[in-house]
Amino acid sequence: MASLFRDRTLGYSRRESTGAAATAAVSTTSSCRYSTSSSSAALSPLPSPFSDLTPSLSASDLCETAYEIFVASCRTSTGKALTYIPADRSPSPSPSNSNSSSSSPSMQRSLTSTAASKMKKALGLRSSSSSGIKRAEGSPGSGGKPKKPVTVGELMRVQMKVSESVDSRIRRALLRIAAGQVGRRIESTVLPLELLQQFKAADFTDQREYDAWQKRNLKMLEAGLLLHPHMPLDKSNTAAQRLRQIIQAALDRPIETGRNNESMQVLRTAVMTLANRSSDGSLFESCHWADGFPLNLRLYEILLEACFDVNDEASIIEEVDELMDLIKKTWGILGLNQMLHNICFSWVLFNRYVATGQVENDLLDAADSQLAEVAKDAKTTKDSAYAKILNSTLTAMLGWAEKRLLAYHDTFDAGNIESMPTIVSIGVSAAKILVEDISNEYRRRRKSEVDVARSRIDTYIRSSLRTAFAQLMEKADSSRRASRHQPNPLPVLAILAKDVGELASKENEIFSPILKRWHPFAAGVAVATLHVCYGNELKQFVSGITELTPDAVQVLRAADKLEKDLVQIAVEDSVDSDDGGKAIIREMPPFEAEGAIGNMVKDWIKTRIDRLKEWVDRNLQQEVWNPQANEGGFAPSAVEVLRIIDETLDAFFQLPIPMHPALLPDLMSGLDRYLQYYVSKAKSGCGSRNTYVPTMPALTRCTTATKLWKKKDKMLNTKRNSQVATMNGDNSSGVLQLCVRINTFHRIRTEVEVLEKRIITLLRNSESAHVEDFSNGLGKKFEISPAACIEGIQQLSEAVAYRIIFHDLSPVLWDGLYIGEPASSRIEPFLQELEKNLTIISNTVNERVRTRMVADIMRASFDGFLLVLLAGGPSRAFTQQDSQIIEDDFKSLKDVFWANGDGLPVDVINKYSTTVRDVLPLFRADAESLIERFRRSTLETYGSSAKSRLPLPPTSGQWNPTEPNTLLRVLCYRNDEAASKFLKKTYNLPKKL
Prior knowledge:
The chain is mainly alpha-helical. The protein is about 60% helix and about 0% strand. α22 runs antiparallel to α23 and α23 runs parallel beside α25 (about 550-575). It has 41 helices and two strands. A hairpin with a 2-residue loop joins β1 and β2 (about 310-315). This is Protein unc-13 homolog. Pfam families: TPR_PATROL1.
């Protein structure tokens, strides 16, 4: 139960049994219902909104005076004597009550025929557990005999707990007063003054009772004429000064109250002077002694309280219609009207609901219904006195309601939720009346600018949700502290997000449907408030995050789920609004939890990738690329890089985040980029095909040089020794080291394909993956590193091939083949060295790239063979007869790569040997035909400008039997007189450099 209802056990009580109540009613002294000694002290009412009177008037004093006014007001309008029928007698005429026929019909009406209350039905009040008839019938009379059915007047006496002796004394006094003032209305009588004159001490059981009675009447005169007068009282008023002196003296020492007593005459003069005052000096028909505010309202409030059953304080008696008719007769004396009755009765119903423990919702409903009448009244009058009373009463009701509504989550639960709509209605109604009908500021503004009901509900929702959120914060913090010794305790904001989500659901299911009557978007306002409260806490949390931790991810994931739930409620609640809920959504600035997670994951990825780059730089500097030192023929650094990448992927998919598919491309891009970086660094400085192809020598006429061959033969042995050292791995970028790099690139490319398949598996197993995430390969494949590996393999394979042919085997190819006499310097030495290198390559490189490397070596050897024939320098010269030697040597070269069918396929060999096959027939042709073909080709290339003088064609390196430069080079290396004359005549080429 909410803390606001902790006083319920004190405020809610039931009266004693019927017999006990009846016993109290027949006591010989006044036992007013409102006496502090009565059982009513168990009630817990609110302070009266009608302000304090005077501390000298007790609740019992007011109660007795109210009863006296009630009995006096029930005289007939004819002014005839008021007849009293004792409770132990029949209401039929008797000799001792000869005037009974002239007394008030309502007072004397028997209760046996009372029908069910129309007022209770109209207000929706429940029937009491015991009727007034049963209450009275069970009460013993003064003689101890059972009572007969009582009259309405007798019921009022019982309800107000006035003893029969007091009631009898009052009625006797009223008969005497009526007898002495025949024809005068009771409103023209100052009742306390007349009562003081009717009794002496002998009429009471003892002097103390008489003194108390006299003081009460004097204090009532003081309250009605001096403290709370009907009209403002001038401080210089002599009558007021005189009355104040008399009362002050009488309170210290009782005065004589006989009819002709001088002190009594002085008192009467002062009282009547004040009671008959008017603003214009005219005489009033009524005496104003009890109609000043708030005295009259306090007295009337007491009379209205008598409508509640003495045995069931939360229930109004069935005879309330008859009783209310009589109570309203006091309006003449109290100066009240229907509007004041409505507001006073609203307060009485409301206050009784509070006083009896806030459990009788029919009282609250009745107060709400009565308040609707007050709202109508407020719009029809501008009376300042009424406005003041209205303001104080509604302020008290509104204050009580708002104390509960501003924290309605603390106030209402399953046990009392039924009362919430009515409490809200009362709060809203009170606020509307106060603002719309009393507030001057509201009148000055256009009413369309202010929706009081919606504004109040908006305030209640936001206030209550903020309070509830603060309590959830404390609860979450306590839960965190309680679980701090447990493994993996939840962070506070993750707990809070769950609790806030449950609070929002509860709000949407229980409270919003109630509040929607006054605010169409109650649920939207509620979740917007919760969204802002949680968002403020989350913002502080996120600002303090420096790295991706499990706690941070848990909080952000919980926040993301909460935001989706809150937005969903807001959207559903605002679907019928004019703006489609945009106003509410604008109140909910995005948590951007996914963005925060994404940023942290990106930072995490960047950290991992940067760390990988540092590792690559450090380890590649230490890598030796030695096949003997590397198991599997590839670099350990590559194995380690792949292991780190694999671990990084595992770690990424183990992150408890909801967007693996969305962030995977960032990770893949980083890993891809640094695999490419590894390949780029690994091949850096290793050269390429162009690194080893020798520079094309100047075009010259060649001649035989037998002596040069002997010199070159000595150089051959030296270069062979250098080649052996290189192949044995003495150079970090030697052929074997390059082969290890090629193996490494191939291994990376192969493992990348495995990683891609593994990524798909990891993605399928992640909780956040969807079918559409597998519809394409974007972001799930390595895009640039496989291409980098292929490019690296191609570059290094060509580099190895051209290094072997043009560097390592240069002594037997470039410096040995066809030097001097072609017949004595054929290709066999080159083939022997080539086969050794092919064996080493085959044993070193991975079988998946072996064919490619052998093909590249074959192509390099074919290029080298052609380069010897077409650009071999002045030490080489060929006759037409040497063509067979050349063709046989080339066939031998091809056979090395065919290897009796165990080598390269024939089609591959034919593909790469096309150029050589096309060029070799030129060496078989005679010089004249070569010259003619050269002339024709040159003219075709250069046109008519070549007719007068043949231009020297540039060297393109793209050998072709129809290309002028190729034909010219065959002529240059032709050991033939015709060729020599043509070259000398046409280009003046020297026979030697």
